[in-house]
Amino acid sequence: MDNSTTLLLGLDGLAVEKVERLVDGTRRVHLTTADESARACPSCGVFTVHVKGFVQTRPRDLPCGERRLQRVWHKRRWYCTGPACPRRTFTEQVRQVPAGARITGRLRDAAGRRVRDAGSTVVQAARDLGLPWPTVMDAFRTAGQEVTAAALEPVEALGIDETRRGRMQWRQNPETGRWEPVADRWHTGFVDAFGIQGLLGQAGGRAPPDVLVWPATTPLQRRRQIRYAAIDMSPGYRAAIRTGLPHATVVVGHFHVVQLANKMINTVRRRTTAALRGRRGRARDPEWKARRRLLPGREDLTDAQFSTMWNALTDAKAIGTTLLTAWTARERLRDQLACARTDADRHRIGHLHWKLLTWCADSGIPEVRTLVRTIDRWWTEIAAFIAAGHSNARSEGINRVIKLVARAAHGFRNPASQRLRTRCVTTRRARGHPHPA
Ligand SMILES: [Zn+2]
User: Fold this and answer.
1) I need a labelling partner for 377 at 20 to 30 A (CA). Which of 65, 110, 300, 333 fits?
2) CA 86 / ligand 1 centre spacing (Å)
3) How far is the CA of 92 from the centre of ligand 1 (A)?
4) If DSSP states are collapsed to H, E and C, what string results for 144-157?
């Protein structure tokens, strides 16, 4: 067998002796050691010349071609000739296949990178490369260390978000017969809200002491660089920031405010349907048909989609009128938030705020009034967001990624793996790997 075959296989330290085809179509490559240093005793380092015999191993390597490619390495077993060496015999090892390894180093690397950089789950990578799950998980942990050890750029805005970890679990109380939640597990995620460094850290729980874990474990220098902390409208987060990052301005981003308004629209729809129809919504109710169209902003609907929604709600009479009032309140709110990306002067912002307040006050819908009261309580932080002129779309995007990663993996049993996976996926762009489509 000439050198070309060895070159084609490209396994450092191993040479191809011959390739044969088995009855089932599998190609079997016979390999010999082509690395002089394999003769050196791993204990004393003396190069030996006394062969004890041959052993065969079948290290697994990267897939090659469509048919299976089996590698058989005929490696020598040596007697150590070093004086006073405690080891009497040893078998050869090369860099790609260290002693005791059953897979090549490059296959291991590929498995780790597939999970770290290519958005693959551990199960998928294991199946694609024909490896056991624990091997891939272990390779991924090694590959992930590079990511967690990498130095971070200064973070201007810290985004803080909660994500539910797994489903809520319920248990029936034997005495009262009632179902009670046993576990409602949450994570708090810390993200680079305006930059590209993705998820910076995660803490179990969402109470102020949990949130304080991150600032407490971050060097003072890095904490001082944080000028803004973008949060959702949770008083616990606000309290934690005031303690842990006292110099940072708390801002409430667009996304969270609109999310709250959309929740309000859904509540209004369910309540009015129950009140006026005396039952839950059904597929043929016009307001049920329009429910999804109510949630995107006006500019995200085509004119045709918008008229379909509008007409459906007009057909729904009283329910529709109430819903359109709630929908308009949300759109007024969005108009105001949209000032964040323009250089709107204070008069215009003030005018839009006044329009929003009067619309909500006149609406006569309790949920709309509650929303506007909440908005008012958080006005300082929302105004700070508008003034800072940043978008926290990234925070929103990362939250989506966290959920997608968890969904693709069918949940995580180990929170540490979940954090590592998410950190690797969300920092892929910063490492020069684009996000998968
Ligand atoms: Zn030795």
Assistant:
1) 300
2) 7
3) 13
4) HHHHHHCCCCCCCE
CA distances from 415 to 120, 145, 421 (A): 18, 16, 10
Please state the rounded mean pLDDT for residues 230-240: 88
- Dist CA 174 CA 181 (whole Å): 14
Domain boundaries, the chain: 1-102, 103-149, 157-253+392-426, 254-388
Q: How remote is the CA of residue 35 from the centroid of ligand 1, in Å? A: 18
Q: How far is the CA of 60 from the centre of ligand 1 (A)?
A: 28
pLDDT tens per residue across span 259-304: 899 999 999 999 999 988 888 888 888 888 888 888 888 888 889 8
* Residues in a beta bridge with 201: 190
pLDDT digits (tens, 9 = 90+) for 392-419: 566 666 767 777 777 776 767 777 787 7
Helix (H) or strand (E) holding 172: strand 169-172
Element (H, E) at 91: strand 89-91
- Ligand 1 centroid, distance to 10 Cα (angstroms): 30
Q: Using the mean position of ligand 1's atoms as its centre, give its distance from the Cα of residue 101 in Å.
A: 21
Facing residues of 19 across strands? 29
Domain 157-253+392-426 matching CATH 1.10.1740: the answer reads no
Distance 397 CA to ligand 1 centre (A): 57
Q: Do 13 and 38 form a contact (C-beta atoms < 8 A)? A: yes
Read off the pTM: 0.63
What's the gap in Å between 87 CA and the centre of ligand 1? 5
User: Given a cut of 90, is residue 352 above it in pLDDT?
Assistant: no
Secondary structure class of 312 (helix, strand, coil): helix
